[in-house]
Amino acid sequence: MAAPSTSLTNPQIPQFNGKNYDYWAITMKALFCAQDLWEFVENGYQEPVDATTYNALTQAEKDLLKENKKKDSKALFLIFQGVNESIFPRIQVATKSKQAWDILQTAYQGMGKVKITKLQMLRRDFETIYMKESDTIESFFTQIIGLVNQIKTHGENLEERRVVENILRSLPTRFESIVVAIEETKNISQFSVDELHASLISHEHRLSRSTNSNLEHAFKTQVSISHGRGRGRTNFRGRGRNSYRGGRGSPSNSSGRGSSPSSSSGRGNYQTSTQNQLQS
């Protein structure tokens, strides 16, 4: 009766497509160890530099060299089988397993470190971001969602609750009332980013309408005051100047000063009568 095949006999080779290199490398190492191949992948093996050196080997040494070549070829085959077609061109020129392994390690473990550094920077930006007074909710959400997507691209998934809490913390004081209302009336753990966005947009529109209404009222008040001052100055100056100028040059004033014929006539009759009484 044939024995059932085992995972060691027919191992499932993990596929590397350029992402999660560390996971792939650990899994492949376990596979190499199970097949007694890791020594060749990690350290390689020595070959004679030329035919003369090879001919100088004992038969046992030649047999061992042949066995080492066979194992190394098997390890190289597993590496070839373990990479995606898009990755294979990087290692297709490799003739030994160590050579192929080192190429991948240099290329992708280094990239992994760069990715970790970038992820740390994105986390810091996400935790320290604040909405500026000049920002709108739409522009601020664009920044936040952009950071969240980049963080996800670098391998970390942010819970929606964490995103909501961070947005609420990052809003300026003009949104304080809506923040308090949301925190007191909503279950933050079940409050989505889309719901928060809609609530903040509505609040921003109300703030905008209120601000525009106040500005319009202030403008109308200023215009009304300006018109009132204009009428006062016109009436006062117009009447004052007309009365004053009219007093100096008007017939009524001339009459009061004795310049009019009627006034002169009155004074002449009075003087003549007085002189006649004195003479008699």
Q: Keywords, please?
A:
single chain; mainly alpha
Structure summary, number of beta strands: 0
Shape: rod-shaped
Structural class: mainly alpha
What share of residues are in beta strands? under 5%
Q: What characterizes the major β-sheet?
A: none
Order of helices and strands: HHHHHHHHHHH
> What's the average pLDDT?
80
Tally of helical segments: 11
Could you write a compact summary of the structure shown?
Helices cover 71% and strands 0% of the residues. The chain is mainly α.
Reconstruct the topology from this structure.
Layout: H1 21-34, H2 38-43, H3 51-55, H4 59-81, H5 97-128, H6 137-153, H7 160-170, H8 176-185, H9 193-249, H10 251-256, H11 261-279
Helix pairs in contact: 4-5, 5-6
Describe this structure in words.
The protein is mainly alpha-helical and 280 residues long. It has eleven helices and no strands. The protein has helices spanning 21-34, 38-43, 51-55, 59-81, 97-128, 137-153, 160-170, 176-185, 193-249, 251-256, 261-279. Helix 4 (59-81) packs parallel to helix 5 and helix 5 (97-128) runs antiparallel to helix 6 (137-153). The longest helix is centred in the C-terminal third of the chain and has 57 residues, at 193-249. The radius of gyration is 50 Å and the shape is rod-shaped. The model is unreliable at 1-7 and 234-280 (pLDDT under 50).
